[in-house]
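Quick one, T. Sequence first:
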Amino acid sequence: MKLIATLAAATVVALAGIGSAAAYDGTNCKAPGNCWEPKPGYPDKVEGSKYDPQHDPMELNKQSESIKAMEERNALRVANFKKTGKFVYNVKDIPAQ
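Structure tokens:
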């Protein structure tokens, strides 16, 4: 009898929790999935404000430079493989052409 009463109480608590959790999620969504809200005092335009990250162009350019160098190394590897039929990973081990 105690087991049935405990299960009934647990079911009531679980159902009450589901209803309250689905009722309010703490956001005011403009559309489904568009729920971002700025904090009070956040500017309409970020550029030039204290929230502007002001990225250094040289830092942003590092990745494109490394990708360009990687593509050059891969081109050397492919050219050597087509010429010799043997794949050499280390570009320093590829004989000069």
